[in-house]
Amino acid sequence: MNALTSLSPRLRQRLMSAAAIVALFLLWELACVAFKVSSIVLPRPSEIFTVLFTKLPLMWPHATQTLYTTLLGFALGTLAGVLIGAVIGMSRVAYDVAYPILVGFSSIPKVAVVPIFVVWFGAGTVPAVLTSMVICMFPVVVNIATGLAHTEPELQDVLKVLGARKLDILWNVGLPRTLPYLFASLKIALTLAFVGTVLAETIAANKGIGNMMMIASGNFDVPLVFAGLFILAAMGVALYVASALIERRFTGWAQRGNELPNG
Amino acid sequence: MNRPFIELSDVTLRYGRSDNPEATLALARTTLSIDDGDFVALVGPSGCGKSTILKLIGGLLTPSSGGVVVNGREVGDPRRARIGLAFQNPTMLPWLTIRDNVMMPLKIVEPFRSAYRRMKHSEYADRAEALLAAVGLKGFGAKRPWQLSGGMLQRASLCRALIHEPQLLLLDEPFGALDQFTREAAYLANRICVMSARPGRILEDRMVGFPRPRDVAMSYAPEFSELVQALRLRIAEARAPGEPPATPTEEAA
Ligand SMILES: Nc1ncnc2c1ncn2[C@@H]1O[C@H](COP(=O)(O)OP(=O)(O)OP(=O)(O)O)[C@@H](O)[C@H]1O
Ligand SMILES: [Mg+2]
Known about the structure:
Order of helices and strands of chain A: HHHHHHHHHHH
GO molecular function, one term (chain B): ATP binding
CATH class of the largest domain in chain A: Mainly Alpha
CATH superfamily of the largest domain in chain B: P-loop containing nucleotide triphosphate hydrolases
Radius of gyration of chain B: 19 Å
Pfam families (chain B): ABC_tran
Strand content of chain B: 15-25%
Order of helices and strands of chain B: EEEHEEEHHHHEHEEHE
CATH architecture of the largest domain in chain B: 3-Layer(aba) Sandwich
Family (chain B): Belongs to the ABC transporter superfamily.
Helix content of chain A: over 70%
Distance between the termini of chain A: 26 Å
Largest interface: A-B, 22 and 24 residues
CATH superfamily of the largest domain in chain A: MetI-like
CATH topology of the largest domain in chain B: Rossmann fold
CATH architecture of the largest domain in chain A: Orthogonal Bundle
Largest sheet of chain B: 4 strands, antiparallel
Shape of chain B: globular
Number of strands of chain A: 0
Number of strands of chain B: 10
Bound molecules: adenosine-5'-triphosphate, magnesium ion
Keywords (chain B): ATP-binding, Cell membrane, Membrane, Nucleotide-binding, Transport
Shape of chain A: flat
Oligomer: heterodimer
Strand order of the largest sheet of chain B: 2-1-4-5
Protein name (chain B): ABC transporter ATP-binding protein
Protein backbone atom coordinates (compact mmCIF):
# COMPACT_ATOMS: atom_id res chain seq x y z
CA MET A 1 0.00 0.00 0.00
CA ASN A 2 2.85 2.34 0.85
CA ALA A 3 4.46 1.76 -2.50
CA LEU A 4 1.14 2.59 -4.14
CA THR A 5 0.60 5.90 -2.35
CA SER A 6 4.10 7.07 -3.25
CA LEU A 7 3.29 6.90 -6.98
CA SER A 8 2.09 9.94 -8.87
CA PRO A 9 -1.71 10.33 -8.68
CA ARG A 10 -2.08 9.86 -12.40
CA LEU A 11 -0.09 6.63 -12.53
CA ARG A 12 -1.96 5.38 -9.48
CA GLN A 13 -5.25 6.04 -11.21
CA ARG A 14 -4.07 4.12 -14.27
CA LEU A 15 -2.89 1.20 -12.17
CA MET A 16 -6.13 1.10 -10.30
CA SER A 17 -8.29 1.04 -13.43
CA ALA A 18 -6.08 -1.72 -14.87
CA ALA A 19 -6.46 -3.65 -11.63
CA ALA A 20 -10.23 -3.21 -11.78
CA ILE A 21 -10.35 -4.71 -15.29
CA VAL A 22 -8.20 -7.67 -14.27
CA ALA A 23 -10.36 -8.17 -11.17
CA LEU A 24 -13.50 -8.16 -13.30
CA PHE A 25 -12.10 -10.88 -15.55
CA LEU A 26 -10.97 -12.94 -12.55
CA LEU A 27 -14.40 -12.67 -10.97
CA TRP A 28 -16.02 -13.69 -14.24
CA GLU A 29 -13.67 -16.67 -14.61
CA LEU A 30 -14.27 -17.78 -11.01
CA ALA A 31 -18.03 -17.37 -11.26
CA CYS A 32 -18.13 -19.50 -14.41
CA VAL A 33 -16.07 -22.22 -12.74
CA ALA A 34 -17.97 -22.05 -9.45
CA PHE A 35 -21.46 -22.19 -10.98
CA LYS A 36 -20.37 -24.55 -13.77
CA VAL A 37 -21.68 -22.25 -16.49
CA SER A 38 -21.56 -23.93 -19.87
CA SER A 39 -19.37 -22.19 -22.42
CA ILE A 40 -22.33 -22.15 -24.81
CA VAL A 41 -24.08 -19.77 -22.43
CA LEU A 42 -21.19 -17.71 -21.13
CA PRO A 43 -17.63 -18.66 -22.03
CA ARG A 44 -14.84 -18.05 -19.54
CA PRO A 45 -12.49 -15.13 -20.31
CA SER A 46 -9.59 -17.56 -20.63
CA GLU A 47 -11.47 -19.38 -23.40
CA ILE A 48 -12.27 -16.14 -25.13
CA PHE A 49 -8.64 -14.99 -25.06
CA THR A 50 -7.52 -18.36 -26.38
CA VAL A 51 -9.94 -18.00 -29.27
CA LEU A 52 -8.76 -14.42 -29.79
CA PHE A 53 -5.18 -15.54 -30.19
CA THR A 54 -5.70 -18.75 -32.14
CA LYS A 55 -8.27 -17.36 -34.57
CA LEU A 56 -6.74 -13.94 -35.00
CA PRO A 57 -5.73 -14.54 -38.64
CA LEU A 58 -9.31 -15.55 -39.36
CA MET A 59 -10.80 -12.54 -37.60
CA TRP A 60 -8.33 -9.96 -38.84
CA PRO A 61 -9.96 -9.32 -42.25
CA HIS A 62 -13.34 -8.93 -40.53
CA ALA A 63 -11.91 -6.46 -38.05
CA THR A 64 -10.28 -4.33 -40.75
CA GLN A 65 -13.50 -4.44 -42.76
CA THR A 66 -15.49 -3.17 -39.77
CA LEU A 67 -12.91 -0.49 -39.03
CA TYR A 68 -12.89 0.60 -42.66
CA THR A 69 -16.68 0.75 -42.85
CA THR A 70 -16.90 2.63 -39.56
CA LEU A 71 -14.29 5.20 -40.50
CA LEU A 72 -15.72 5.73 -43.96
CA GLY A 73 -19.25 6.09 -42.61
CA PHE A 74 -18.00 8.37 -39.86
CA ALA A 75 -16.05 10.56 -42.30
CA LEU A 76 -18.98 10.89 -44.68
CA GLY A 77 -21.44 11.43 -41.85
CA THR A 78 -19.26 14.11 -40.28
CA LEU A 79 -18.73 15.87 -43.58
CA ALA A 80 -22.45 15.85 -44.37
CA GLY A 81 -23.24 16.82 -40.78
CA VAL A 82 -20.87 19.80 -40.81
CA LEU A 83 -22.21 21.05 -44.14
CA ILE A 84 -25.86 20.69 -43.20
CA GLY A 85 -25.22 22.07 -39.72
CA ALA A 86 -23.37 25.09 -41.14
CA VAL A 87 -26.22 25.93 -43.49
CA ILE A 88 -28.81 25.54 -40.75
CA GLY A 89 -26.78 27.41 -38.15
CA MET A 90 -26.02 30.36 -40.40
CA SER A 91 -29.58 31.24 -41.28
CA ARG A 92 -32.41 31.78 -38.88
CA VAL A 93 -34.95 30.68 -41.49
CA ALA A 94 -33.17 27.43 -42.29
CA TYR A 95 -32.88 26.76 -38.57
CA ASP A 96 -36.60 27.14 -38.00
CA VAL A 97 -37.57 25.19 -41.10
CA ALA A 98 -35.13 22.32 -40.86
CA TYR A 99 -35.12 21.63 -37.16
CA PRO A 100 -38.46 19.75 -36.96
CA ILE A 101 -37.50 17.68 -40.01
CA LEU A 102 -34.20 16.79 -38.40
CA VAL A 103 -35.81 15.79 -35.15
CA GLY A 104 -38.22 13.61 -37.11
CA PHE A 105 -35.45 11.90 -39.04
CA SER A 106 -33.22 11.42 -36.06
CA SER A 107 -35.96 9.71 -34.07
CA ILE A 108 -36.44 6.99 -36.70
CA PRO A 109 -34.87 3.79 -35.34
CA LYS A 110 -31.95 3.30 -37.71
CA VAL A 111 -32.44 -0.47 -37.97
CA ALA A 112 -35.39 0.41 -40.13
CA VAL A 113 -33.25 2.01 -42.83
CA VAL A 114 -30.94 -0.95 -43.38
CA PRO A 115 -33.48 -2.97 -45.45
CA ILE A 116 -34.09 0.10 -47.60
CA PHE A 117 -30.38 0.50 -48.30
CA VAL A 118 -30.19 -3.21 -49.09
CA VAL A 119 -33.01 -2.86 -51.61
CA TRP A 120 -31.25 0.09 -53.21
CA PHE A 121 -27.67 -1.08 -53.19
CA GLY A 122 -27.73 -4.82 -52.46
CA ALA A 123 -26.11 -6.52 -49.49
CA GLY A 124 -22.46 -5.71 -48.82
CA THR A 125 -20.31 -2.77 -47.82
CA VAL A 126 -22.44 0.05 -49.20
CA PRO A 127 -25.48 -0.35 -46.91
CA ALA A 128 -23.17 -0.64 -43.91
CA VAL A 129 -21.32 2.57 -44.81
CA LEU A 130 -24.59 4.39 -45.43
CA THR A 131 -26.19 3.17 -42.22
CA SER A 132 -23.19 4.26 -40.22
CA MET A 133 -23.25 7.59 -42.05
CA VAL A 134 -26.89 8.44 -41.38
CA ILE A 135 -26.74 7.23 -37.81
CA CYS A 136 -23.75 9.39 -36.92
CA MET A 137 -24.75 12.47 -38.90
CA PHE A 138 -27.46 13.85 -36.65
CA PRO A 139 -25.52 14.69 -33.50
CA VAL A 140 -23.00 16.53 -35.69
CA VAL A 141 -25.71 18.51 -37.48
CA VAL A 142 -27.41 19.48 -34.24
CA ASN A 143 -24.21 20.48 -32.47
CA ILE A 144 -22.79 22.50 -35.36
CA ALA A 145 -26.09 24.30 -35.88
CA THR A 146 -26.43 25.05 -32.18
CA GLY A 147 -22.82 26.20 -31.87
CA LEU A 148 -23.10 28.53 -34.85
CA ALA A 149 -26.44 29.92 -33.80
CA HIS A 150 -25.03 30.69 -30.37
CA THR A 151 -21.79 32.38 -31.44
CA GLU A 152 -21.44 35.60 -29.45
CA PRO A 153 -22.25 38.64 -31.61
CA GLU A 154 -19.31 40.52 -30.06
CA LEU A 155 -16.88 38.04 -31.60
CA GLN A 156 -18.50 38.48 -35.00
CA ASP A 157 -18.38 42.26 -34.63
CA VAL A 158 -14.58 42.07 -34.51
CA LEU A 159 -14.64 40.92 -38.13
CA LYS A 160 -17.76 42.74 -39.31
CA VAL A 161 -16.21 46.13 -38.62
CA LEU A 162 -13.40 45.19 -41.02
CA GLY A 163 -15.95 44.64 -43.77
CA ALA A 164 -15.54 40.86 -43.67
CA ARG A 165 -17.72 38.68 -45.86
CA LYS A 166 -20.10 36.15 -44.41
CA LEU A 167 -17.80 33.31 -45.38
CA ASP A 168 -14.84 35.02 -43.65
CA ILE A 169 -16.86 35.28 -40.47
CA LEU A 170 -17.92 31.65 -40.71
CA TRP A 171 -14.35 30.51 -41.28
CA ASN A 172 -12.59 32.73 -38.72
CA VAL A 173 -15.18 32.98 -35.96
CA GLY A 174 -18.13 30.64 -36.42
CA LEU A 175 -16.26 27.41 -37.05
CA PRO A 176 -13.47 27.85 -34.45
CA ARG A 177 -16.10 28.87 -31.92
CA THR A 178 -18.05 25.74 -32.80
CA LEU A 179 -15.10 23.33 -32.64
CA PRO A 180 -15.70 22.33 -29.00
CA TYR A 181 -19.31 21.53 -29.91
CA LEU A 182 -18.11 19.62 -32.95
CA PHE A 183 -15.70 17.48 -30.96
CA ALA A 184 -18.28 16.81 -28.30
CA SER A 185 -20.51 15.48 -31.05
CA LEU A 186 -17.69 13.61 -32.84
CA LYS A 187 -17.14 11.36 -29.87
CA ILE A 188 -20.81 10.43 -29.88
CA ALA A 189 -20.83 10.18 -33.67
CA LEU A 190 -17.88 7.80 -33.69
CA THR A 191 -19.60 5.45 -31.29
CA LEU A 192 -22.79 5.67 -33.32
CA ALA A 193 -20.96 5.05 -36.60
CA PHE A 194 -19.61 1.91 -35.02
CA VAL A 195 -23.09 0.85 -33.89
CA GLY A 196 -24.46 1.53 -37.38
CA THR A 197 -21.72 -0.52 -39.03
CA VAL A 198 -22.13 -3.55 -36.82
CA LEU A 199 -25.90 -3.28 -37.07
CA ALA A 200 -25.83 -3.34 -40.84
CA GLU A 201 -23.21 -6.08 -40.86
CA THR A 202 -25.36 -8.35 -38.76
CA ILE A 203 -28.30 -7.81 -41.12
CA ALA A 204 -26.91 -7.67 -44.60
CA ALA A 205 -23.22 -8.19 -45.18
CA ASN A 206 -20.79 -10.91 -46.07
CA LYS A 207 -17.85 -9.57 -44.14
CA GLY A 208 -17.12 -7.67 -40.95
CA ILE A 209 -17.12 -8.47 -37.25
CA GLY A 210 -20.92 -8.17 -37.06
CA ASN A 211 -21.29 -10.70 -39.86
CA MET A 212 -18.71 -13.00 -38.29
CA MET A 213 -20.57 -12.88 -34.98
CA MET A 214 -23.86 -13.72 -36.68
CA ILE A 215 -22.35 -16.75 -38.37
CA ALA A 216 -20.55 -17.82 -35.19
CA SER A 217 -23.76 -17.62 -33.17
CA GLY A 218 -25.52 -19.67 -35.86
CA ASN A 219 -22.85 -22.34 -35.30
CA PHE A 220 -23.16 -22.04 -31.51
CA ASP A 221 -19.52 -20.97 -31.41
CA VAL A 222 -20.18 -18.70 -28.46
CA PRO A 223 -16.52 -18.09 -27.53
CA LEU A 224 -15.99 -16.70 -31.04
CA VAL A 225 -19.02 -14.44 -30.60
CA PHE A 226 -17.51 -13.08 -27.42
CA ALA A 227 -14.12 -12.72 -29.07
CA GLY A 228 -15.85 -10.54 -31.67
CA LEU A 229 -17.38 -8.52 -28.86
CA PHE A 230 -13.96 -7.99 -27.30
CA ILE A 231 -12.54 -6.82 -30.61
CA LEU A 232 -15.41 -4.37 -30.96
CA ALA A 233 -14.80 -3.07 -27.45
CA ALA A 234 -11.07 -2.66 -28.12
CA MET A 235 -11.76 -0.83 -31.39
CA GLY A 236 -14.32 1.39 -29.70
CA VAL A 237 -11.88 2.37 -26.99
CA ALA A 238 -9.09 3.01 -29.49
CA LEU A 239 -11.32 5.26 -31.60
CA TYR A 240 -12.47 7.14 -28.52
CA VAL A 241 -8.92 7.74 -27.34
CA ALA A 242 -7.89 8.94 -30.79
CA SER A 243 -10.74 11.45 -30.93
CA ALA A 244 -10.03 12.66 -27.39
CA LEU A 245 -6.38 13.30 -28.32
CA ILE A 246 -7.36 15.22 -31.44
CA GLU A 247 -9.89 17.20 -29.44
CA ARG A 248 -7.30 18.22 -26.89
CA ARG A 249 -5.02 19.40 -29.67
CA PHE A 250 -7.65 21.63 -31.30
CA THR A 251 -9.81 22.92 -28.49
CA GLY A 252 -7.34 23.40 -25.67
CA TRP A 253 -8.50 27.01 -25.45
CA ALA A 254 -11.96 25.93 -24.34
CA GLN A 255 -10.69 23.51 -21.71
CA ARG A 256 -8.47 25.72 -19.62
CA GLY A 257 -9.13 25.40 -15.94
CA ASN A 258 -10.73 21.97 -16.13
CA GLU A 259 -8.63 18.90 -15.64
CA LEU A 260 -8.04 17.44 -19.07
CA PRO A 261 -9.72 14.08 -19.43
CA ASN A 262 -7.06 11.37 -19.51
CA GLY A 263 -7.82 9.59 -22.74
CA MET B 1 -13.45 66.66 -50.79
CA ASN B 2 -15.90 69.19 -49.40
CA ARG B 3 -18.11 66.55 -47.97
CA PRO B 4 -17.36 65.64 -44.34
CA PHE B 5 -15.68 62.31 -43.83
CA ILE B 6 -18.38 61.13 -41.43
CA GLU B 7 -21.97 62.28 -41.60
CA LEU B 8 -24.71 61.26 -39.21
CA SER B 9 -27.92 62.93 -40.28
CA ASP B 10 -30.93 62.75 -38.04
CA VAL B 11 -30.00 59.32 -36.80
CA THR B 12 -32.38 57.53 -34.48
CA LEU B 13 -31.49 54.14 -33.09
CA ARG B 14 -33.77 51.87 -31.19
CA TYR B 15 -32.59 48.57 -29.73
CA GLY B 16 -35.26 45.95 -30.24
CA ARG B 17 -38.21 45.99 -32.62
CA SER B 18 -40.06 49.27 -32.90
CA ASP B 19 -43.40 47.66 -32.02
CA ASN B 20 -41.90 46.42 -28.77
CA PRO B 21 -42.79 48.83 -25.96
CA GLU B 22 -39.69 47.77 -24.07
CA ALA B 23 -37.34 48.71 -26.89
CA THR B 24 -34.59 51.08 -25.75
CA LEU B 25 -34.35 54.35 -27.60
CA ALA B 26 -30.58 54.87 -27.55
CA LEU B 27 -30.21 57.78 -29.96
CA ALA B 28 -32.79 60.36 -30.93
CA ARG B 29 -32.28 62.39 -34.10
CA THR B 30 -28.57 62.88 -33.72
CA THR B 31 -26.72 64.90 -36.31
CA LEU B 32 -22.96 65.01 -36.37
CA SER B 33 -20.37 65.54 -39.05
CA ILE B 34 -16.65 65.06 -38.77
CA ASP B 35 -14.06 66.17 -41.29
CA ASP B 36 -11.21 64.16 -42.67
CA GLY B 37 -8.16 64.44 -40.44
CA ASP B 38 -10.08 65.64 -37.43
CA PHE B 39 -9.77 64.24 -33.93
CA VAL B 40 -13.03 64.33 -32.04
CA ALA B 41 -13.77 63.21 -28.51
CA LEU B 42 -17.27 62.23 -27.61
CA VAL B 43 -18.09 62.56 -23.92
CA GLY B 44 -21.27 62.15 -21.92
CA PRO B 45 -22.87 60.27 -19.07
CA SER B 46 -22.85 56.50 -18.94
CA GLY B 47 -25.42 54.82 -21.12
CA CYS B 48 -26.06 57.88 -23.26
CA GLY B 49 -25.21 56.19 -26.54
CA LYS B 50 -21.52 56.80 -27.18
CA SER B 51 -20.75 53.18 -27.99
CA THR B 52 -23.90 53.11 -30.08
CA ILE B 53 -22.63 55.99 -32.23
CA LEU B 54 -19.31 54.22 -32.75
CA LYS B 55 -21.08 51.01 -33.76
CA LEU B 56 -23.23 52.94 -36.20
CA ILE B 57 -20.18 54.51 -37.79
CA GLY B 58 -18.41 51.16 -37.80
CA GLY B 59 -21.35 49.61 -39.63
CA LEU B 60 -22.24 47.18 -36.86
CA LEU B 61 -25.67 48.72 -36.40
CA THR B 62 -28.13 50.06 -38.95
CA PRO B 63 -29.98 53.20 -37.91
CA SER B 64 -33.71 52.86 -37.28
CA SER B 65 -34.05 56.10 -39.23
CA GLY B 66 -31.68 58.67 -40.65
CA GLY B 67 -28.47 58.11 -42.53
CA VAL B 68 -24.87 57.27 -41.70
CA VAL B 69 -22.37 58.03 -44.43
CA VAL B 70 -18.66 57.35 -44.11
CA ASN B 71 -16.26 58.41 -46.83
CA GLY B 72 -19.19 59.20 -49.11
CA ARG B 73 -20.66 55.73 -48.85
CA GLU B 74 -23.64 54.40 -47.00
CA VAL B 75 -22.70 51.97 -44.30
CA GLY B 76 -22.98 48.44 -45.58
CA ASP B 77 -21.07 49.28 -48.74
CA PRO B 78 -18.07 46.97 -48.71
CA ARG B 79 -15.88 49.64 -50.34
CA ARG B 80 -16.27 52.07 -47.49
CA ALA B 81 -13.34 53.32 -45.45
CA ARG B 82 -10.84 51.05 -43.76
CA ILE B 83 -11.94 51.19 -40.14
CA GLY B 84 -10.12 50.26 -36.96
CA LEU B 85 -12.36 49.84 -33.93
CA ALA B 86 -11.16 49.15 -30.41
CA PHE B 87 -14.13 47.91 -28.46
CA GLN B 88 -15.08 49.00 -24.98
CA ASN B 89 -14.60 45.49 -23.67
CA PRO B 90 -11.74 44.27 -25.79
CA THR B 91 -13.08 41.08 -27.34
CA MET B 92 -10.19 38.89 -28.37
CA LEU B 93 -10.92 35.59 -30.08
CA PRO B 94 -10.07 33.10 -27.33
CA TRP B 95 -8.76 30.37 -29.65
CA LEU B 96 -6.06 32.60 -31.11
CA THR B 97 -2.87 33.88 -29.52
CA ILE B 98 -2.59 37.60 -28.89
CA ARG B 99 -0.35 37.92 -31.96
CA ASP B 100 -2.85 36.15 -34.21
CA ASN B 101 -5.62 38.29 -32.80
CA VAL B 102 -3.69 41.43 -33.62
CA MET B 103 -2.99 40.11 -37.12
CA MET B 104 -6.64 39.31 -37.81
CA PRO B 105 -7.39 42.54 -39.75
CA LEU B 106 -4.53 41.76 -42.14
CA LYS B 107 -6.19 38.47 -42.93
CA ILE B 108 -9.46 40.17 -43.83
CA VAL B 109 -8.78 43.64 -45.20
CA GLU B 110 -7.45 44.33 -48.68
CA PRO B 111 -4.73 44.96 -49.81
CA PHE B 112 -3.14 43.00 -46.96
CA ARG B 113 -5.46 40.06 -47.48
CA SER B 114 -3.98 39.01 -50.81
CA ALA B 115 -0.44 39.42 -49.51
CA TYR B 116 -1.35 37.32 -46.47
CA ARG B 117 -2.15 34.50 -48.82
CA ARG B 118 1.17 34.97 -50.60
CA MET B 119 3.03 34.00 -47.44
CA LYS B 120 3.81 37.37 -46.04
CA HIS B 121 2.88 35.77 -42.79
CA SER B 122 6.18 36.18 -40.96
CA GLU B 123 6.53 39.79 -42.06
CA TYR B 124 3.08 40.52 -40.68
CA ALA B 125 3.89 38.67 -37.48
CA ASP B 126 6.91 40.94 -37.02
CA ARG B 127 4.69 43.92 -37.56
CA ALA B 128 2.25 42.73 -34.92
CA GLU B 129 5.10 42.11 -32.49
CA ALA B 130 6.48 45.60 -33.11
CA LEU B 131 3.09 47.15 -32.37
CA LEU B 132 2.71 45.05 -29.25
CA ALA B 133 6.16 46.12 -28.09
CA ALA B 134 5.18 49.75 -28.66
CA VAL B 135 2.36 49.43 -26.13
CA GLY B 136 4.56 47.58 -23.66
CA LEU B 137 3.42 44.06 -24.46
CA LYS B 138 6.71 42.74 -25.74
CA GLY B 139 6.87 38.97 -25.29
CA PHE B 140 3.11 38.55 -24.82
CA GLY B 141 2.38 37.75 -28.47
CA ALA B 142 2.31 34.01 -27.93
CA LYS B 143 0.03 34.21 -24.88
CA ARG B 144 -3.67 33.53 -24.96
CA PRO B 145 -6.18 36.32 -24.26
CA TRP B 146 -7.19 34.97 -20.84
CA GLN B 147 -3.59 35.18 -19.68
CA LEU B 148 -3.63 38.99 -19.91
CA SER B 149 -5.14 41.56 -17.59
CA GLY B 150 -7.98 43.86 -18.64
CA GLY B 151 -5.70 46.80 -19.33
CA MET B 152 -3.25 44.65 -21.25
CA LEU B 153 -6.10 43.34 -23.41
CA GLN B 154 -7.17 46.89 -24.06
CA ARG B 155 -3.67 47.74 -25.27
CA ALA B 156 -3.58 44.64 -27.46
CA SER B 157 -6.94 45.57 -28.89
CA LEU B 158 -5.52 49.01 -29.71
CA CYS B 159 -2.82 47.25 -31.72
CA ARG B 160 -5.48 45.27 -33.55
CA ALA B 161 -7.30 48.50 -34.40
CA LEU B 162 -4.11 50.02 -35.82
CA ILE B 163 -2.37 47.22 -37.67
CA HIS B 164 -4.19 47.62 -40.98
CA GLU B 165 -3.46 51.36 -41.15
CA PRO B 166 -7.10 52.44 -40.87
CA GLN B 167 -8.39 55.65 -42.41
CA LEU B 168 -10.78 55.92 -39.50
CA LEU B 169 -9.89 54.99 -35.97
CA LEU B 170 -12.71 54.48 -33.50
CA LEU B 171 -11.70 54.04 -29.88
CA ASP B 172 -14.34 53.19 -27.34
CA GLU B 173 -13.15 54.29 -23.92
CA PRO B 174 -9.50 53.65 -24.67
CA PHE B 175 -8.07 54.77 -21.35
CA GLY B 176 -9.99 52.66 -18.92
CA ALA B 177 -12.88 55.06 -18.49
CA LEU B 178 -14.12 57.45 -15.86
CA ASP B 179 -13.92 61.16 -15.15
CA GLN B 180 -10.19 61.23 -15.56
CA PHE B 181 -10.84 60.80 -19.23
CA THR B 182 -12.38 64.23 -19.72
CA ARG B 183 -8.93 65.56 -19.01
CA GLU B 184 -7.30 63.24 -21.49
CA ALA B 185 -9.89 64.08 -24.11
CA ALA B 186 -9.28 67.80 -23.72
CA TYR B 187 -5.56 67.20 -23.93
CA LEU B 188 -5.68 65.06 -27.08
CA ALA B 189 -8.63 66.07 -29.21
CA ASN B 190 -9.33 68.97 -31.57
CA ARG B 191 -13.00 68.94 -30.84
CA ILE B 192 -15.19 67.62 -28.06
CA CYS B 193 -18.88 66.75 -28.35
CA VAL B 194 -20.85 66.48 -25.14
CA MET B 195 -23.84 64.17 -25.24
CA SER B 196 -27.05 64.22 -23.24
CA ALA B 197 -28.34 61.31 -21.19
CA ARG B 198 -30.30 58.66 -23.07
CA PRO B 199 -31.67 59.07 -25.67
CA GLY B 200 -28.43 60.69 -26.65
CA ARG B 201 -28.19 63.94 -28.56
CA ILE B 202 -25.23 66.23 -29.04
CA LEU B 203 -25.61 68.98 -26.45
CA GLU B 204 -22.51 70.93 -27.07
CA ASP B 205 -19.84 70.96 -29.73
CA ARG B 206 -16.66 72.65 -28.64
CA MET B 207 -13.37 73.26 -30.43
CA VAL B 208 -10.21 72.77 -28.43
CA GLY B 209 -7.99 75.54 -29.68
CA PHE B 210 -4.76 74.82 -27.84
CA PRO B 211 -1.79 74.86 -30.21
CA ARG B 212 0.02 71.66 -31.08
CA PRO B 213 2.28 70.04 -30.15
CA ARG B 214 0.85 70.12 -26.67
CA ASP B 215 3.10 69.36 -23.76
CA VAL B 216 2.33 68.23 -20.25
CA ALA B 217 2.92 71.73 -18.85
CA MET B 218 -0.04 72.94 -20.90
CA SER B 219 -2.37 70.59 -19.07
CA TYR B 220 -1.69 72.60 -15.91
CA ALA B 221 -2.40 75.97 -17.51
CA PRO B 222 -5.45 77.79 -16.12
CA GLU B 223 -7.27 77.85 -19.50
CA PHE B 224 -6.95 74.11 -19.72
CA SER B 225 -8.29 73.54 -16.23
CA GLU B 226 -11.18 75.85 -16.99
CA LEU B 227 -12.07 73.86 -20.09
CA VAL B 228 -11.96 70.57 -18.21
CA GLN B 229 -14.01 72.08 -15.44
CA ALA B 230 -16.63 73.37 -17.86
CA LEU B 231 -16.84 70.01 -19.61
CA ARG B 232 -17.27 68.10 -16.39
CA LEU B 233 -19.99 70.49 -15.30
CA ARG B 234 -21.77 70.00 -18.61
CA ILE B 235 -21.63 66.21 -18.26
CA ALA B 236 -22.88 66.43 -14.70
CA GLU B 237 -25.85 68.49 -15.88
CA ALA B 238 -26.53 66.05 -18.69
CA ARG B 239 -26.53 63.09 -16.37
CA ALA B 240 -30.04 62.16 -15.40
CA PRO B 241 -30.65 62.25 -11.64
CA GLY B 242 -29.75 58.98 -9.97
CA GLU B 243 -27.51 57.84 -12.83
CA PRO B 244 -24.06 56.48 -12.04
CA PRO B 245 -21.07 58.74 -12.65
CA ALA B 246 -20.17 59.64 -16.19
CA THR B 247 -18.04 57.29 -18.28
CA PRO B 248 -16.98 59.25 -21.29
CA THR B 249 -15.86 57.75 -24.54
CA GLU B 250 -13.62 58.95 -27.24
CA GLU B 251 -13.71 58.71 -30.93
CA ALA B 252 -11.06 59.86 -33.33
CA ALA B 253 -11.18 60.37 -37.04
N1 LIG C 1 -27.50 45.42 -27.48
C1 LIG C 1 -28.32 46.24 -26.80
N2 LIG C 1 -29.60 45.90 -26.62
C2 LIG C 1 -30.46 46.71 -25.97
N3 LIG C 1 -30.11 47.91 -25.46
C3 LIG C 1 -28.84 48.30 -25.60
C4 LIG C 1 -27.88 47.49 -26.27
N4 LIG C 1 -26.70 48.14 -26.26
C5 LIG C 1 -26.91 49.29 -25.62
N5 LIG C 1 -28.19 49.40 -25.22
C6 LIG C 1 -28.80 50.53 -24.52
O1 LIG C 1 -28.52 51.69 -25.26
C7 LIG C 1 -28.12 52.74 -24.42
C8 LIG C 1 -26.82 53.34 -24.92
O2 LIG C 1 -25.80 52.38 -24.81
P1 LIG C 1 -24.28 52.67 -25.15
O3 LIG C 1 -23.55 51.41 -24.99
O4 LIG C 1 -24.21 53.34 -26.47
O5 LIG C 1 -23.88 53.70 -24.00
P2 LIG C 1 -22.49 54.40 -23.72
O6 LIG C 1 -22.67 55.84 -23.91
O7 LIG C 1 -21.40 53.76 -24.51
O8 LIG C 1 -22.28 54.09 -22.18
P3 LIG C 1 -20.93 53.80 -21.38
O9 LIG C 1 -20.23 55.09 -21.23
O10 LIG C 1 -21.42 53.28 -20.07
O11 LIG C 1 -20.17 52.80 -22.17
C9 LIG C 1 -27.98 52.17 -23.02
O12 LIG C 1 -29.01 52.72 -22.23
C10 LIG C 1 -28.20 50.68 -23.15
O13 LIG C 1 -29.09 50.23 -22.18
MG1 LIG D 1 -19.88 52.55 -24.11
